[in-house]
Amino acid sequence: MSGLTEDxxxxxGSDGHVMCCALxxxxxxxxxxxxxxxxxTKDPTYKLLLITxxxxxxxxxxERLAGKIQGAGKYRAKAATFDSVFGKQxxxxxxxxxxxxxxxxxYNFLERAMRHAGLNMEIDDAMMxxxxxxxxxxxxxxxxxxxHPGWLTFQAYADLMExxxxxxxxxxxxxxxxxxxxxxLKPWDATHILVDEFQDTSDMQYAWxxxxxxxxxxxxxxGDDDQSIYSWRGAAGYQNMVNFQSDFGxxxxxxxxxxxxxxxxxxxxxxxxxxxxDRVYKDMKSGRDEGGIVKVKGYLTAADEFQAMISAITxxxxxWAVLARTNRILxxxxxxxxxxNIPYKRxxxxxxxxxxxxxxxxxxxxxxVRPKDTRFxxxxxxxxxxxxxxxxxxxxxxxxxxxxxxxxMPPAWLDLNPKTEKLHQNWIEWxxxxxxxxxxxSRVQSIVSFLKSARGEKGREARLIELVGDILVNLKxxxxxxxxxxxxxxxxxxxxKKNDEEGEKGxxxxxxxxxxxxxxxxxxxxxxxxxxxxxxQNALDEESTGGIPEERRLFYxxxxxxxxxxxxSFNYSxxxxxxxxxKPPSQFLCExxxxxxxAVLEDLNxxxxxxxxxxxxx
Length: 618
What we know:
The chain is an alpha/beta fold.
């Protein structure tokens, strides 16, 4: 077929259950679009659903489909995310009148659930448990531990969701699958379902795909088990690829030509990933000319390592990306870039307004100046510690009477939390507009002081509350309190812009290894490639879901982001004794580059010995 390799042509010309394993940069999206074009052209009764994981990826696929497919066929091929597909199935079946909680609201809702049930757990740990159980087809305690805090937290969360009529994405997915399974929901109207990034599918998503295949849809899955790096959020990776081929007798293809990495880079990445045993074997080939640079670098200190990185960037700054396993390492790299005035951008970091504390403070400010909008009142007073029965009574009253919170008259029998009472007493005054700078500052300070007293005068939450107040006061606009809140509250709406993830000449990109997936840069530097960093200490201690094999896949993902140049560095002092600060180089470097590592470590030993002698002489 025109414009396709032989392997791509085999996939694009298929019409049945297919499993396609695609190397990084092998043109899988191009192949999927070609397949979609062939299918809708082949038969006017064919209807295609292409599923992926992110809204940006779905939008990109829809743009490609619109540009490729001619005539009416383009209306029979649509790309969407798993979440949007599940949600539409429930809405079409008139089984979803619930509001979906996400982001900061979900954190605050979980906190309410734990408080109502008398449970005490770190919020991030609690979120891990509700995700673990929420992804199960049939949630039940792990190892039958019915009294385990994680199970009790999930139960409290699920019970409160039921009582308040809300849902999360896990509940939506389970409801969609069970509805199709028991016949109360219609299966998706598609003759073919094409799944992108199949290695990232969970058991729940696979079950949904499987039941549609059993009902007659032809399933095509495209992915790479070597890039399965999300087991911590339920991705089944290689196992789902094995299951799919077994369950459907799917024809298997491999897109073995990489058009991104030069041969030297692809060969190096191949040497590392082949240490994983449970994987689909692939004969990896590069479609690029030779001339790639692959270097392993060792330094005695982190400062030396980052300074070498800066030197490499300043000497030839075409399109650099600095990748690391943790945000702490990226923080250090960012500091060095700032010191040397090197332009940079950082991917994958959480925005301020995504934080559940900043988010609920912003919702309070919005509700004060728009009192008729009572959507957030339950979340706000719940965050302030109000009893769940009182929250239900108040929110029900406001909805039924269409009454602003400030005009709500609590019945004598309702015993409100003192914090809720104080908020209610000040509601109307705090929401009135003022253009006077002194009055505005005083107003904001009163709100900040109240929230800090309600949530704690010190610590992270107090700092975030103060930060939101400072931002509100210092906004560079002429308006008063209401104008400032309205401008700030634009951050409550999800951004419609795609992430600016493309490389930009002369601007260094900072990214975690996880966030780098799907992207590419001409020059890549993987920093802090140390044992206990990548692989992580949790993996070494056998406390992570994916263990060492997943950490190796993560390192492989980082390596295969490089087009022309790949540098992997570590910092290690062989002479350091009795300290945990000097971690040995990553086993992945030793596995993939044994000769180079021998030379690098010998050089470090010499440097360390010379440094020690110089100290003794002084």
